[in-house]
Design a protein that fits this description.
Shape: elongated
Helix content: 55-70%
Order of helices and strands: HHHHHH
Number of strands: 0
Largest sheet: none
Distance between the termini: 33 Å
Structural class: mainly alpha
Amino acid sequence: MKIHLNHISKKSKTIAATAFVLGAALAGVGSIGSNTAFAENINNIDKQPNRAEHITNLVNALAQKFNLNSTEVKTVIDTVMASEKVSMQAKHDQHLADRLAKAVTAGKITQAQSVLITAKIQETKAFMESMMNKTDAERKTAMTTFKTNIQTWATANNIPKEFIGMGGMKG
């Protein structure tokens, strides 16, 4: 997916790029695509700074500093961040697909297991997203159950342990 930014001035693009880098650093976006990091930090979510608040503060600071309309700055930042997220996710997905294809070719797993792993990774992503609005106790219980289910699934499908950590699956 390519987002065209031709209608946006060079100054706005520069500000958006700067904002993205700063926003990523502040919000911890550097781990996009890493559900493993997400899973390891899930219990600290209430202690983490609010990402939306960081972006709002960044938008307002940039708008004020460069005498711009904050709505326009927010639109540019949102557009650039959405584009970057899509691009990073596509690269991550391709890396996983390549790793699975190599494992099939090397005889470490079958094509059927590769399909099962890919489906489980998608299921894991959805599960991790569902954790966002849960309490600490609910997350802890859900993660314990999830871990047990992953181990059971891997055993039932004869999935080698080296593939259980892919895409955030932790067993």
